[in-house]
Design the sequence.
């Protein structure tokens, strides 16, 4: 084999290894993301005047789901222990939210000042809520939005065997 042919063979082998490595990294990054948020496209079912969204728990047993606020994509962490929907301050501009009245918050890191706001439209699957009370939480280092009881109280929800079912009745739709 000529020296030029051997050189091209080595280059092709390096390119093949590089492509294989790139594909493996992409595969495992996608797999890891699905472990954190197994509900990137929540399953909805509409039957008999009810909209039902089923959410699978992630590897830690939390219910994380993709959704939308004011038409912008977000990731929710469902938190029945949170009074309101809590939004990291870094996201308010992207979501088109305004800071309302200030309020004192007690967090794991101590006291801080948050702000009231209202979400004009909140969506998870085919469930749509309007005018949901929320708060802007400074120092909340996360891209996830805590979906608290100000939203969840408008729905019926049940948990069984690692699945959470959210139900919105037709009479509850705006």
Sequence:
């Amino acid at each position: 084999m000529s020296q030029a042919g051997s050189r091209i063979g080595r280059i092709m082998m390096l390119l093949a290894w590089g492509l294989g490595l790139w594909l493996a990294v992409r595969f495992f990054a996608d797999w890891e993301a699905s472990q954190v948020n197994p509900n990137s496209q929540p399953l909805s079912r509409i039957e008999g005047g009810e909209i039902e969204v089923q959410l699978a728990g992630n590897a830690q047993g939390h219910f994380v789901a993709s959704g939308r606020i004011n038409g912008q994509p977000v990731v929710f962490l469902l938190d029945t222990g949170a009074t309101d929907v809590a939004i990291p301050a870094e996201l308010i501009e992207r979501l088109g939210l305004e800071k309302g009245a200030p309020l004192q918050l007690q967090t794991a890191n101590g006291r801080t000042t948050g702000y009231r706001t209202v979400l004009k439209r909140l969506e998870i699957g085919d469930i749509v809520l309007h005018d949901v009370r929320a708060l802007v939480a400074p120092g909340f280092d996360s891209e996830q939005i805590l979906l608290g009881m100000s939203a969840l109280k408008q729905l019926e929800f049940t948990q069984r065997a690692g699945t959470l079912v959210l139900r919105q009745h037709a009479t509850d739709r705006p």
